[in-house]
Amino acid sequence: MIQSRLDRLVALATAAICLAVMSAGWGMRGDAGLFPLITGTLGVLASAWLGLAGHKPPTDTEQAPACGNGQRLVLWSAGVVLLLALMEPVGTFIVVPLFLVATFRWLAGLRWAFAFLLAGSFTLAIYIVFAWLLSVPLPAGWLAS
Amino acid sequence: MDILIAAFANVVTPAALMTLVLGTLAGILVGALPGLSSTMGVALCIPITFSMPPDLALILLGAVYVSSVYGGSVTAILLRTPGTDASIATALDGYPMAAAGRGGEAIGMATLASLFGGLISVFVLLAIAPPLSTIALAFGPQEYTWLAIFGLVTIVGVVSERPVKGVLSAALGLILACVGLDAFTGEQRFTFGQSELFDGIPLLPVLIGLFSVSQAFNLCIPRGGGVLSEDAQQLQGRSLPYWSDLKRCHRTLWRSSLIGSIVGILPGAGTSIAAFISYNEARRHSRHPERFGKGEVEGVAASEAANNAVTGGTLIPTLTLGIPGNAVTAVFVGGLTIHGMIPGPSLFTQHAESTYTLIVSLLFANLLFAVLGLWLCRYMVKVTRVPGAVLGPMILLFSVVGSYALRNEMFDVWLAVGCGLMGYYLERWRYPAAPLVIALILGPILEVNFRRAMQISQWDMTTFFTRPLSLALGLLVVLALVVPFWRRWRRRHAAIV
After folding, report:
1. Shortest CA gap A99–chain B (Å)
2. Which of A109-118, A136-145, B28-37, B53-62 has the highest mean predicted lDDT (pLDDT)?
């Protein structure tokens, strides 16, 4: 997709959001809706400006965004979602080293031994800094008992 | 003079120097880690100071404060993950320098600029604190409104190659700033019934997400990704800036330090405003403004000098009037009160020796973080050679745990990761993220002061134009809006002719 078409889509989406904000602000009590109205208006005007500017013929600098590695994006995003979803039920200090080993092995291509060593060291660092020094009560999960 | 000599004597004792070193190291670490902030660092030190004498307690808190502001620049430059919101401007030029194999130069310049700014602000604090505090009292809600608008206009102009995208990003940030319970009416705005949003969208997870988590995505997703560009892989790089660059930047350093000191005096104005205003001024005065945002060392110097100059500035209203300059100094007030020192005019009379010991210790803390920073620079830079798929997960995990540490809520973690994904696509689609974050910071300042001014004046808009200071700031805003368009028109006109 070329940049100008992308910009027009973004302009359309943000205009819709800003109109919704303005509409919600209009119905608020007292002057609580004043700022949403003002910022929504600013957003709509900026969207209109962007949308109109996107109709200009593309110049040499307006290249399409570079293609990313879709498979790695999906794998990585799935890993992150799993990490977050399991952090509370399973426990931070179980999920974190597992996530690290998986990413070091399958994304970075490290050897198993090195992946485990690096993951273990980093998990220990997180424990020392956050759990021990700063006393942050990270989710314990299965280790709670 | 006797008080100053006594203060110096208090700071050079072995116990005080040890406290300074520990506080400086802790502050650099706190500032560098995404998810930890200066406010957290100082707040976490308060319980440690319970058993300490007041002088040592203040030395520790002061050292953590100034060095954490500097610490934020290290990760901002090397990894594009600003540890504090004050370092966002530093990342604009610092990270491109690191990617080009010039990370050492960037950190070296950031260190020296931070030292310069910090020293200037300490001297300002020492020399003219009480008279300067009257400036803080002269600022009313009208002036704060204009200052917030000025900050927004400056940032939009600075970070985006196309201003319209910066305006759009800022507008979205201002909309996000509306989320939460309205301060005046208590109305729930865009909370969708989520209690975690009653206090508004928390800034730190958004900051961590848009910069740190998105950077983790950038490092992990491309095969063979990393901080250094292909050409830079072969470079050794310096660990200090060139003397010619330092000479070139000396006006910028002075200007930025003064801007930082003045903005710091204004309670609630924020370090990020000072950093961006200084950055914009440096770009305006530069012979090569087109180089800013692409690895111009003067950009790093401007933002870092302003950042650290703010630290002394914020202590002026705190110590002289008892009005905290920002969240960190609000915690400072708590620390002072615990040790029986009530901030205000009496602090310089009843507890003069302790107060000046704090100020003198800031001098030493600035020197100490500069020495440590310059020494550790060559080692810190090696992190840029770590493969992206190894560095990325580590950055992500620090961000995740740091976001959780704020309120012990998984909501903040999900928010950070969601913002990270958004930041990843914003960057690919060439939309700037910085205006969104800055608008999220300035939005509440702008709204609260605007509505306060309107209520005081009974909805008379002329209140923003009838006060001299207000009018002057308004004119600055108009100039900041008009001048770039006028310059662009002149360039086009000259090209046609």
Report:
1. 8
2. A109-118
Contact B428 A68 (CB under 8 A): yes
CB B261 within 8 A of CB B315: no
Nearest C-alpha in B relative to A4: B429
Per-residue tokens: B200: 């508004």
Q: Are B282 and B252 in contact (CB under 8 A)?
A: yes
Start-to-end C-alpha separation, chain B: 64
pTM value surpassing 0.90: no
Between the alpha carbon of residue A108 and those of residues A84, B360, B388, the distances in Å are 21, 48, 8
CB contacts of B417 in chain A (<8 Å) are: 80, 84
The answer to which of B180-194, B264-278, B470-484 has the lowest mean pLDDT is B264-278
| pLDDT tens sequence across B353-378 | 888 888 889 999 999 999 988 888 87
A65 interaction partners in chain B (CB closer than 8 Å): 428-430
Q: What is the pLDDT of residues B124-145, one digit of tens each?
A: 888 776 666 667 677 889 988 9
Which of B178, B223, B392 has its CB closest to that of A36? B178
Task: Please check whether residue A138 is in contact with residue A130, taking contact to mean a CB–CB distance below 8 angstroms.
Answer: yes
Residues 6+ apart with CB under 8 A from A130: A136, A138, B401, B402, B405
Per-domain boundaries in chain A = 3-53, 70-143
Rounded distance between C-alpha atoms, residue B42 and residue B24, angstroms: 11
Contact (CB, 8 A) for B117 and B260: yes
- Of B166-180, B213-227, B396-410, the poorest mean pLDDT is in B213-227
Contact B320, B270 (CB under 8 A): no
**For the segment B379-389, what is each residue's pLDDT rounded down to a tens digit?**
887 888 888 88
Task: Please report, for chain B, the start and end positions of each structural domain, with discontinuous segments joined by +.
Answer: 2-496
Query: Min CA distance, A102 vs chain B (Å)?
Result: 10
Q: Confidence band (pLDDT; 50, 70, 90) for B414?
A: very high
A137–B44: do the CB atoms touch at under 8 Å? Answer: no
8 A C-beta contact, residue B79 and residue B386: no
* Residue type (1 letter), B423: G
CA atoms within 13 A on the CB side of B270: 25
**Alpha-carbon distance A145 to nearest alpha carbon in chain B (angstroms):** 19
What whole-number distance in Å separates Cα of residue B149 and Cα of residue B156? 11
CB B149 within 8 A of CB A38: no
C-alpha dihedral, B117 to B123 to B126 to B130, nearest 10°: -70
Rounded to whole angstroms, the Cα distance separating B334 from B342 reads 9
pLDDT of A64 > 70? The answer is no
Distance CA B335, CA B114 (A): 25
